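User: Structure with 2-acetamido-2-deoxy-beta-D-glucopyranose, tokens only please.
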Amino acid sequence: MDKRNLNIAVIGAGVIGSSVAKELQKELRNSNITVIADAFHEDTASCVAAGIFRPGPSFKGPTREITKQWIDYSWNYWSKIMNSSDAAQAGIMPLPVYIFSKTNYHVTRNHLIEDLVPVYRECDVDELKMCGKGWKYGSYYLTLKIECDKYLPWNEVLFKQNGGKILKQKVESFSSLKDYNLVFNCTGMGSKYLCNDHDLVPIRGQVIKVNAPWLKTSFYGDYDTYVIPGMDGNATLGGCRQYDSYNMEVDKYDSASIWERCCDLVPSLKKAKVIGHKVGLRPHRVPVRVEREVMHGLSVVHCYGHGGYGVMVAPGTAKTAVQIAVDALKRNSQSKL
Ligand SMILES: Cc1cc2nc3c(=O)[nH]c(=O)nc-3n(C[C@H](O)[C@H](O)[C@H](O)COP(=O)(O)OP(=O)(O)OC[C@H]3O[C@@H](n4cnc5c(N)ncnc54)[C@H](O)[C@@H]3O)c2cc1C
Ligand SMILES: *[C@@H]1O[C@H](CO)[C@@H](O)[C@H](O)[C@H]1NC(C)=O
Ligand SMILES: *[C@@H]1O[C@H](CO)[C@@H](O)[C@H](O)[C@H]1NC(C)=O
Ligand SMILES: *[C@@H]1O[C@H](CO)[C@@H](O)[C@H](O)[C@H]1NC(C)=O
Ligand SMILES: *[C@@H]1O[C@H](CO)[C@@H](O)[C@H](O)[C@H]1NC(C)=O
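Assistant:
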């Protein structure tokens, strides 16, 4: 492999850029890594997410095998932190989930994680009556959850301790990247504005953050209704999936609908204190784009388009993105990158 000290830029400081930067420090120790972004921490889409480890059917890598590898690798990655003494600081916690449906059995199953999580079973008759009337199908499983408002700052401290640099700046042109040998494009929805990737589409989401310390279990119902407890006694209530909507404003009709649907599912929420409302655009693309391209003479590895599943699967896609770069370095070790 190339032994030169590389200058590497990671564009994006959401969960994807943050995970790529961490993987780079592991695989390319001698390189000089700079994360460049115009938004950090709570200003990223990553911090709107509840961060539940639960892939949906719209999540697709280039092949089924790769999709599954990403998910399995990520599960182990998060489990390891969750089992360590860093869990609370890193924002990783175990999460029991009930998922119910009045209309369809399949939405209560999840072939991508049933073999991975420690428990995944059908609900019994009593459990189907836990959340009001009319639930015909239901599953119970144990998964985990990643809170980016804790994970991103925790990861950033480690990144800096290992010599990483951070620049707050908007990347508007490739000429501003000419000092770097290698660039990782982890811009999420930002890739849409920079470029003409017509396959990247926002799926708008809105959630209500509430304080409900008594809640320890997550509940899902039909029509994208979910209640996800977190650390500090707070919970995320959702939601909606609006395809091709760029609206970043809180919509009062969405709020009313989310509140009513969640209170129907979990009536104790009526007494919960509302902390705030949040909107985020899920960067949806089929497949998620993890590939290398030479742009304006610069070696770029793209890693974007994770839709509604970027938090849970970030470690897996970051590993592939860095591997692609390392392979290219090996191939080109005699010549120029
Ligand atoms: C309501 C909602 C609920 C969700 N729930 C879950 C969930 O439960 N589980 C899950 O796994 N996922 C969930 N997601 C999806 C998840 O949030 C995304 O897949 C993930 O955050 C994408 O991460 P990212 O790093 O690609 O993007 P972002 O977090 O948006 O980060 C993009 C970064 O790129 C930077 N950037 C972009 N363009 C430029 C530029 N030109 N110059 C400099 N910097 C730039 C930005 O400043 C930012 O730092 C949810 C999303 C929403 C909206
Ligand atoms: C690391 O990269 C930055 C940005 O290109 C550059 O300013 C700095 O001099 C580099 N440091 C080393 C040791 O190469
Ligand atoms: C985490 O701990 C659980 C329970 O002890 C164990 O089954 C699992 O294998 C551990 N996972 C990892 C990745 O260490
Ligand atoms: C990120 O990818 C998009 C789509 O290919 C491209 O237009 C954009 O210039 C890339 N940005 C960087 C910094 O590589
Ligand atoms: C969680 O709830 C506490 C109050 O218990 C509040 O101070 C804090 O800001 C909340 N955190 C988030 C992320 O909403």
